[in-house]
Design goal:
binds coenzyme A
């Protein structure tokens, strides 16, 4: 499986992917803080293992019995090849072992690609936050029951 934990040396490439997709604006210090946080799980998709050629990443938070997917991204050229699903499955399966019940996420209402991706991978829409983003766009709130996912 070409998925491994994110390292500090991956951050330039992770930032490059984020900038290419222009969907979020975390800086290097924010990613570095995630790497140090004991409540965070940060993974990357490394196409050719050992080459450090990273094509995608995901960041999860572990919050008591719940967890949250904060960010998932796949470099444009590598999309629609299953990398997103592989990152999601790898992260969720690391969260699953008995102590995590649900995983939550929020996504821009207009991000139809990501919403379709989440829905296809078992997330259910349970609400919206009106004008959640600074530009006034609504956030859609999704969750997945980790136990039912493994059954
Ligand atoms: C959301 C995102 C991570 C999905 O990544 P991805 O690698 O394209 O995801 P997958 O390849 O697993 O699935 C996407 C589609 O490819 C299809 N697919 C997967 N493997 C495939 C293959 N081998 N051949 C053809 N199609 C394939 C899937 O069925 C799915 O199809 P659908 O769009 O019709 O449902 C990606 O679009 C992205 O980085 N978006 C920008 C960042 C973003 O908005 N992130 C979410 C907000 S935090």
């Amino acid at each position: 499986m070409p998925i491994r934990e994110m390292k500090e040396s991956d951050l330039p490439r992770v930032l490059e992917i984020q900038q290419e997709l222009a969907f979020q604006d975390w800086n290097e210090s924010q990613f570095a803080a995630e790497l140090r946080a004991n409540y965070a799980l940060c993974v990357v998709y490394e196409a050719d293992q050992g080459t450090s050629l990273v094509n995608g990443y995901a960041v999860f938070h572990l919050l008591g019995p719940d967890s949250e997917l904060l960010s998932i991204a796949v470099s444009h050229n590598c999309q629609h090849k299953g990398l997103g699903k592989a990152l999601l499955d790898a992260g969720l399966s690391r969260l699953s072992p008995k102590d995590k019940d649900r995983c939550f996420l929020e996504v821009r209402e207009g991000n139809s690609t990501a919403r379709k991706f989440y829905e296809k991978n078992g997330f259910t829409l349970f609400g919206t936050r009106k004008k959640y983003y600074s530009d006034g766009e609504n956030a859609c709130l999704y969750s997945i029951d980790l136990e039912s996912r493994t059954n």
